[in-house]
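Section 5: illustrative case.
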């Protein structure tokens, strides 16, 4: 379905980003991945589907490195057709206790990096009159919860950035959309499960159940594979007129 296309997924060494990168590679896209941690493991998995997949180690908090990543994608893969802005971090604290350096890092990684990557990739996409930008926002781009102010501000900003860029590209073959997962059991959320287990004095399974019961009516975690399926749809021809949406995959969280 995507043979002949190239794709760059930020934060794709783990969790949701890795799931999306694997699905895009399986669909025939030529891949550039990015992120920290088990780079060799992630690259090996993606190379099972795209043997020539490449990696760029840009730190999403550094605009010059984000720009270099997009330029390297264009140089090494020939183009950047699909851009998935996925890298993200979390920090949980009340506003009055929130460390300013954590605020700055979350805004830089979860919001500004998407601006810098889009700014670099859009001219080529518009010139070729084909492009797909998918921003991984969150239910927290649409509604709030306590103690996540920086994350919620960044994700609401990312939804707004998505709509604005979608309007600017509306008459072109470039679409810009956001996806809004509820709870997905990745390392980012396991930390919150661990905190819940410690706070409530319960085991891992009970902490997961409590986390879900509070917000996600389906009582099931969304999976990276389900989110990857939505990204594939947004990259497909029937989605060419889907523009500027913020699409929940949240087990009913925001329907309440
Ligand atoms: P994760 O921790 O498993 O993966 C995060 C990825 O981002 C990793 O590859 C990591 O190396 C990378 N990353 C972190 N900081 C980076 C930086 N400075 N530069 C480059 N890469 C960096 O987390 P995840 O749950 O898969 O989260 C992926 C995205 O999905 C995030 O934007 C997150 O906000 C969003 N999201 C997650 C959930 C959830 O429940 N897990 C829900 C809604 C939205």
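Designed sequence:
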């Amino acid at each position: 379905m995507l043979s002949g296309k190239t794709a760059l997924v930020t934060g794709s060494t783990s969790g949701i980003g890795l799931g999306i990168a694997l699905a895009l590679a399986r669909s025939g896209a030529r891949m550039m991945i990015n992120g920290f941690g088990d780079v060799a493991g992630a690259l090996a998995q993606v190379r099972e589907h795209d043997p020539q997949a490449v990696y760029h180690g840009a730190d999403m908090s550094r605009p010059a490195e984000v720009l270099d990543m997009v330029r390297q994608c264009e140089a090494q893969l020939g183009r950047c057709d699909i851009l998935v802005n996925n890298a993200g971090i979390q920090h949980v604290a009340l506003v009055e206790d929130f460390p300013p350096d954590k605020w700055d890092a979350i805004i830089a990684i979860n919001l500004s990096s998407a601006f810098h990557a889009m700014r670099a990739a859009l001219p080529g996409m518009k010139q070729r009159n084909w492009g797909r930008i998918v921003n991984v926002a969150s239910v927290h781009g649409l509604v709030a919860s306590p103690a996540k102010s920086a994350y919620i501000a960044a994700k609401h900003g990312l939804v707004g950035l998505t709509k604005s860029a979608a309007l600017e590209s509306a008459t072109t073959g470039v679409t810009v959309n956001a996806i809004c997962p509820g709870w997905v059991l990745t390392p980012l959320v396991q930390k919150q499960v661990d905190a819940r287990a410690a706070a409530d004095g319960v085991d891992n399974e009970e902490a997961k159940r409590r986390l879900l019961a509070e917000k996600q009516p389906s009582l099931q975690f969304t999976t990276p594979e389900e989110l990857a399926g939505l990204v594939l749809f947004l990259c497909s021809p029937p989605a060419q007129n889907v523009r500027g949406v913020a699409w929940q995959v949240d087990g009913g969280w925001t329907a309440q």
